[in-house]
Write a structure and sequence with these properties.
Structural class of chain B: alpha/beta
Shape of chain A: elongated
Number of domains of chain B: 1
Order of helices and strands of chain B: EHEHEHEHEHEHHEHH
Strand content of chain A: under 5%
Number of domains of chain A: 1
Largest sheet of chain A: none
Number of helices of chain B: 9
CATH topology of chain B: Spore Coat Polysaccharide Biosynthesis Protein SpsA, Chain A
Radius of gyration of chain A: 26 Å
Oligomer: heterodimer
Largest interface: A-B, 11 and 17 residues
Number of helices of chain A: 4
Structural class of chain A: mainly alpha
CATH class of chain B: Alpha Beta
Shape of chain B: globular
Distance between the termini of chain B: 36 Å
């Protein structure tokens, strides 16, 4: 019951404003086709988590208590870092996939170009058409 | 051409090698005229491509630099498409002795080896070169030997002949960065037949080595890690399965 008690302090308001701003920016990029939905979901989850943790400070205190953490806000740092690490790992995966794909594309392109070159060894006459 | 044509392709990867490429290609034409040659121009910014074309050698231009692994792999794919029975990687620094190409290819075509590595350390007199480099090669060869369950003396040699079976596998799986030691393990794990052949290398004819100074050490640690991680990787898909997306 204390865990879900809403405590409105200046910091709560501040965090909620920031979280809403993040969500707004993310959604606006999705609207402009510049951010794919699958990536937006993670960021929207982050802003949602910020709102929840800021509004119900009891959650943090409860977690700190269960995990025997002396300083409850450090739970927030941990959650934040874990999120950033997960995001970075996700990007490493994406980069591996993309570099593999771009290598295959470059190879495919050079092979096709080579085939074109052998099919038409003569350059077309200049100014012909 | 006097010599009878052999259905094997010489793959010459070249990245900014205008200083040595002409000599290398001319020597290949003289000493190994029975083979077709392809130059893989790995996004060079100098006259590498023009030089090869002016000598009438087919060139595959990569639109950006892929590194030695990606470049050589392009040659593997080309060899398969063009129906060659074997391919030889011939680095464009002119350190390999081209008169040995025929003997490496003969081992592949006549004796059914899948990969024949020209080893500098089996040759008499043994290969000189900086101590750091020799040490690095020794360690990598031991590790590659361990994982491929056979004796390897020159895991980093870039002078190798491959069978079509080996090419089919490597066209799909070839490490992009430092491919030589790893590819030995890849092929050994596929159950392909690998052997080394003593080959005396010469001094570089131009250009700069991609591995100099203390770089051999960082190269060695990266490749050792890659080799070790390979042992834990899932067995890659059989080649036929991968062919679907071709």
């Amino acid at each position: 019951m204390t865990m879900l008690a809403i405590s409105i302090r200046p910091i709560t308001v501040f965090v909620i404003v920031v979280a809403v701003a993040i969500a707004g920016v993310v959604l606006s990029y999705v609207r402009k086709w510049r951010l794919r939905e699958e990536y937006s979901i993670l960021w929207l989850l982050l802003s949602a988590a910020m709102v929840v943790l800021a509004s119900f400070s009891g959650i943090t205190v409860w977690m700190a208590d269960r995990l025997d953490v002396k300083y409850p806000p450090s739970i927030l740092f941990f959650v934040g870092l874990a999120f950033v690490a997960a995001m970075l790992f996700h990007y490493s995966l994406e980069i591996s996939r993309l570099s593999d794909q771009s290598r295959r594309l470059a190879q495919e392109l050079s092979l096709l170009r080579g085939r074109l070159e052998t099919q038409s060894p003569e350059r077309p006459a200049e100014g012909g058409e | 051409m006097s010599a009878e044509r052999v259905n094997a392709l010489l793959i010459v990867p070249a990245y900014n090698e205008e200083a040595s490429l002409r000599l290398v290609l001319q020597e290949l034409r003289e000493v190994a005229p029975q083979f077709d040659v392809v130059v893989i121009n790995d996004g060079s910014i100098d006259a590498t491509g023009e030089i090869a074309r002016s000598l009438g050698v087919p060139v595959l231009d990569l639109c950006f630099n892929l590194g030695i692994g990606g470049a050589v792999q392009t040659g593997f794919k080309y060899a398969l498409q063009q129906g060659y029975d074997a391919a030889v990687q011939v680095d464009s620094d002119g350190q390999f002795p081209p008169d040995r190409i025929a003997s490496l290819v003969a081992l592949v075509l006549d004796e059914d080896w899948d990969m024949v590595i020209g080893s500098r350390y089996l040759a008499e007199p043994g290969y000189e070169g900086s101590r750091v480099r020799r040490f690095g090669n020794l360690i990598l060869s031991k590790i590659a030997g361990l994982f491929s369950r056979q004796r390897v003396t020159d895991a980093t040699s870039g002078f190798r002949a491959y069978s079509r079976r080996a090419l089919e596998y490597l066209a799909d799986y070839y490490p992009p960065d430092y491919p030589e030691p790893e590819s030995i393990v890849f092929l050994a794990r596929q159950g392909l037949r690998i052997r080394e052949e003593p080959v005396a290398m010469r001094a570089r004819q131009g250009g700069v080595s991609s591995i100099g100074g203390l770089r051999p050490l960082s190269y060695m640690s990266k490749v050792s890690l890659a080799l070790t991680l390979n042992a834990f990787k899932e067995k890659p898909f059989p080649t036929a399965e991968r062919r679907r997306d071709k």
